[in-house]
């Protein structure tokens, strides 16, 4: 009999790829969500959908009882209480995997390592707050609940992705850069182009979640990110190669950007201090990541098929043109 997997979430981005990966690995899959987003698996015979709100304990309990899953992938645990309820409801599954985040790390170190790099603290106030500022603390508290549950015998694990990109990415962060490369010959990259913000290809995040559910050690956290990471300039070059186009990367320092009232932080995926996750622990479980060129080709192809343009992150092409003008006079 096939193993059964319950995916809490499953219809938008990471969860959607999780479902596909599980199907490719012969699981019977049930997704649990509220039905606010279109279900891409509506016509799929091997995917059952249970409707409910994970913040309503009765709904999740009913799903746990009706599905009796072998493994659970929890895509929508944003509050410590969500994880507390889940490790209790799924205390006897073979693997419960909580999607945490690289934002759970408090210390800026290169690389950030599981079990070594300090995690964020989480106050009672932060635990129920819904602002972006408390996201890292809430994710870290979820990790600690996973660790405690494992001490009580629950097969609970956590996976910490860095910035995730790829098909169906509703955050549109990479879409901004793809859109720039597809539409302009010259693209402004802040600073010297060498800044590093570790990214994770979404299909690799999906496989990581399954591999950890199957092979992970209860009470452990596993970082996930591209095995080989690239600088911002290399990322833009990868996009251009994947799109089979040419694009000149133009560096603009703080001074040149200031001429158009811009700063490096106005550019999405720019981060001053490098954010790099060590991925050795996950790789030791047999997980592998997709070659970057392939990951970017699939991301660009999906961008072209979608109506995403990343415009919500656009610092303004006019301002950028002004920066290019300043640089041309130097
Ligand atoms: N994207 C990144 O760069 C990144 C990085 C690190 C960590 N993460 C983590 O990845 C997870 C997000 O993944 P995703 O959004 O891509 O997953 P997803 O599973 O593809 O999409 C979210 C799903 O959750 C459902 N949902 C939302 N609230 C719900 C609720 N209260 N009860 C039941 N279902 C609910 C949504 O459908 P309905 O609205 O229809 O219910 C949707 O199916 C989060 O835990 C996030 O912290 C993301």
TrEMBL record:
In its UniProt entry, what is this protein called? Answer: NAD-dependent epimerase/dehydratase family protein
Q: Gene3D superfamilies, per this entry?
A: NAD(P)-binding Rossmann-like Domain (3.40.50.720)
Q: Where is the composition biased (Basic and acidic residues)?
A: 296-323
- Chain intervals for the UniProt region annotation (Disordered): 296-330
InterPro entries with a match to the protein in the record: Epimerase_deHydtase (IPR001509), NAD(P)-bd_dom_sf (IPR036291)
Q: What does the similarity note say?
A: Belongs to the NAD(P)-dependent epimerase/dehydratase family.
Q: Which organism is it from?
A: Halobaculum lipolyticum
Domain NAD-dependent epimerase/dehydratase positions: 5-225
Name the domain of life this protein comes from: Archaea
């Amino acid at each position: 009999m096939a193993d059964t997997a319950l995916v809490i979430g499953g219809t938008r981005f990471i969860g959607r790829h999780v479902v596909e990966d599980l199907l490719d690995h012969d699981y019977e899959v049930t997704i649990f969500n509220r039905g606010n987003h279109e279900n891409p698996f509506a016509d799929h015979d091997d995917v059952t959908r249970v409707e409910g709100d994970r913040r309503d304990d009765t709904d999740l309990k009913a799903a746990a009882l009706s599905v009796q899953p072998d493994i659970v992938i929890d895509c929508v645990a944003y509050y410590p209480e969500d994880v507390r309820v889940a490790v209790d409801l799924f205390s006897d599954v073979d693997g419960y995997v909580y999607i945490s985040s690289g934002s759970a790390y408090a210390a800026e170190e290169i690389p950030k390592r599981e079990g070594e790099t300090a995690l964020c603290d989480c106050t009672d106030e932060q635990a129920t707050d819904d602002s972006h500022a408390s996201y890292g603390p809430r994710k870290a508290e979820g990790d600690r609940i996973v660790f405690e549950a494992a001490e009580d015998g629950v097969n609970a694990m956590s996976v910490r992705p860095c910035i995730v990109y790829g098909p169906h990415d509703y955050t549109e962060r990479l879409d901004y850069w793809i859109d720039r490369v597809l539409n302009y010959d010259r693209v402004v990259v802040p600073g010297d182009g060498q800044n590093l913000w570790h990214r994770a290809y979404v299909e690799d995040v999906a496989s990581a979640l399954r591999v950890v559910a199957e092979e992970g050690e209860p009470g452990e956290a596993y970082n996930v990110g591209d095995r080989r990471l690239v600088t911002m300039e290399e990322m833009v070059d990868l996009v251009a190669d994947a799109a089979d186009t040419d694009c000149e990367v133009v560096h603009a320092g703080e001074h040149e950007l200031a001429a158009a009232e811009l700063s490096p932080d106005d550019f999405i995926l720019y981060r001053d201090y490098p954010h790099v996750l060590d991925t050795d622990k996950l790789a030791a479980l047999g997980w592998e990541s997709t070659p970057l060129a392939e990951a970017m080709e699939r991301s660009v192809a999906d961008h072209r098929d979608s109506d995403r343009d990343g415009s919500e992150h656009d610092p303004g092409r006019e301002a950028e043109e002004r920066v290019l003008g300043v640089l041309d006079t130097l």
